[in-house]
Write a structure and sequence with these properties.
By secondary structure, this protein is an alpha/beta fold. It has two domains: about 10-20 and about 180-480, Purple Acid Phosphatase, chain A, domain 2 (4-Layer Sandwich); about 30-175, Beta Barrel (OB fold (Dihydrolipoamide Acetyltransferase, E2P)), CATH 2.40.50. About 25% of the residues lie in helices and about 20% in strands. The protein has eleven helices and 18 strands. Strands 1-12-13-14-16-15 form a six-stranded mixed beta sheet. Strands 11-10-9-8-17-18 form a six-stranded mixed beta sheet. The protein is globular, with a radius of gyration of 25 Å. The two termini are about 25 Å apart.
Amino acid sequence: MLRLNCKYTPLFERFKLSRTTQELKQFNSIYVHRIKSLRPILEKNIAAKWINDQDYPPKILKRVIDVSEQEEEVKTKENLISKEFVLIGTVYKDTSKKPNILGEYSQGYQNVMDQSYSDFKVDSYFSKEDQIVLEDENGRIYLIGDSYLLNSLVTGIVIAVKGTIEGDKFEVNEICYPGLPKQSSLNNLLLTNENENENEIKKEKEEKEEKEKKNIKKYVALISGLEIGNPKSDPQKLELLLEYLTGFLEESNENKIQSQIVRAIICGNSLFRPKPKVNQKSTTFENRKKDGNLVCSDSKSLDQFISRLSSSMAVDLMPGESDPSNLFLPQQPFHPVLFPFSRKTKSFNRVTNPYECKIDNTIFVGNSGEAINDMAKYFKNGDLNEVKFQVFQNSLDWCHLSPTCPDTLPCHPFENSDPFIIKNTPHVYFAGNQDQFSSEIIHKKSYTTGNKKISCIFVPKFYQTSEIVLVDIETLESSTVSFDF
């Protein structure tokens, strides 16, 4: 089968760990870098939203601890033109429902050692007694005000709040978010590097015009939750998926698009990991050997699947929570020893989680779902998928892929950077391993960086739904292909 070509640019280098990242460090550094990086962006947004063209603009306080001084000024000068102030800081939700590993540890050393991180998780962190704190490098203050407004926040996001001082608390009237940087255009020429000559640019322009005349589309396949080895998964559906993507499955007259799928991104949880037996008093050598044999068998099956798929198309393989990768985010690429056959093909790429790349002109940014699942726990229970999808979209306004790291989601103690800050506004923003497919093309307006068009996609678990997602890289529209029978 002849498959369309595309230009691929990896953009996930910042998610890879340096040799010094593993040293013992404090997590405070990542918070400090986060607020220092996002503060200048917020200051521009504040000027455009609250300061410019205002007769009585609020006063911007550089530090949270300056609130105490302003409180005295408000008390002594009743004729102040404006009693509103603006603070910039990092949100912290003080809730009693967050997991406490020290408490679990005190109940028994062996039980803790036999559990994985997921066993310490709870379904929700939300409670009516939650208190919200805004903090910076110098101090912190409790936020009060409209509960609907404040309940939309999660731990770790950097925001600006406008309001009044009420004793030792700050009453919030309005919130300003960092938003996203400028978005690159989908209509630019694909070859724009300085080293590329005019002939190459001219050639690509001609190819682009010819493709538009023929109305040829290109698709990227998003796949997640294969969970090879899961007793609930159906190997026949996995084989059907492989035959479809490689072109061995006969195409229908209505949907001849297999040859137009230029790349596959597998968004984590490709292997099944059974939960450990918590009540087991000791783990014998025979039990460990048995579990190890199962992992090896499943890894071989995954290697065979990837090898066959990558022989036909480019494949990016992200790790997930159930995969044999490091626990802390950003998860590093799979070890090459797990793929003795797949690694021989140049079209197979072991990538990080989160992941970012550029396919032709379209920027893809996404993760395997842990960050979205964790953020959703800060909100009141409702329709879980709707809550998660709304939080997923909100994370774009927050300009951060995983703000709850490292508070309730483990991550590496980065010292001089926060890799989860969104550097390039995506055209396609995805999260894998969700219970059902959801998709919406949203339009973001900005005071300072222009309008943006983003396709937000929830990629369903394949072993549960038997579905994958196809994304048109030009129109950004997405749809599912089902392999259920």
